[in-house]
């Protein structure tokens, strides 16, 4: 299947096995700039593997992934790392914030790693923290904030470099309904205003309802529901 | 929703004309489906006949629409009973979907297709509700949440069924 014209990130016929276990068995994917696509499916269906392949974290056994017209498999590790740092942002189920750093230092970290000065990085970090309504936590360490607040800090960190694609893997999986909802509202709003495309892996329908469309992964195969319905 | 009980409940705060009742109903409950005047007057006639409301006054020059209604003691008891009675859960969707899934399996069609299509339709509704919730006030949010949780419950059943399709196929084709 050829990816739809204008796709920012697209995958064709992806296969990936971990030993005897097939994780992806011909999966397809595409996303346009600024679009939010939910990747749904039961546990063990291959949806997280799909996300990891799309983000260049895991190399598929075969198949093609193109980002902005460039083939990921043609890049070396350093090029893929650079791509992840500058073009992609990540939010996982557990914020994975650095516990020794304050919240503002955590958010500023991707910019610092890219060589931005501390002052400039923290200024940009604070602007994102304001949008995610966590600027009052700037001096606190991750261990001192709630799960919902920590996830909002993680979203701010993921968006601080101005990525074109935000990968969110079960971003509300560890939160209660109310906090999960607030994280999704703010994540959606922030990503949309930044023009970032969002690949949202979730098994929760209420979370998927924030997306523009969904694909369903089952037994390593994907179904784009928009093309079917 | 029981329109009669809702109108009765609205009368508990004091007597109202039919028009006021319609306006109060539409404002609080009729976001998608405002009441027709005809519905209000036919409902009030029935409540009047059953002794749940009484005419509190008729304004000069008034036809039936100028009547002012007040709730009676029997009406208050009726509202109280209605509020205390749980709603019957609606098993219709599951029944219909279950029938479709079983039929697909029996006729060697892809039952997962049936479930995928239904999931997509449910998600379409959930997107509309999520968007409405985002733009709305607290009342809107609560109304949408109620609908969202129901749709989510359907989807949980759907996912569970999807995970058990093979077993179901064995059971129904045996």
Automatic annotation (TrEMBL), chain A:
Residues 9-228 form the ABC transporter domain. SUPFAM superfamilies: P-loop containing nucleoside triphosphate hydrolases (SSF52540). GO terms for molecular function: ATP binding; ATP hydrolysis activity; transmembrane transporter activity. GO terms for cellular component: plasma membrane. PROSITE patterns: ABC_TRANSPORTER_2. This is ABC transporter ATP-binding protein. Keywords: ATP-binding, Nucleotide-binding, Transport. CDD domains: ABC_MJ0796_LolCDE_FtsE. It holds the Pfam family ABC_tran. It comes from Streptomyces naganishii JCM 4654.
UniProtKB/TrEMBL annotation, chain B:
Coiled coil: none annotated. It comes from the Bacteria. Residues 7-77 form the Transcription regulator PadR N-terminal domain. InterPro entries: Tscrpt_reg_PadR_N, WH-like_DNA-bd_sf, WH_DNA-bd_sf. This is PadR family transcriptional regulator. It comes from Streptomyces anandii.
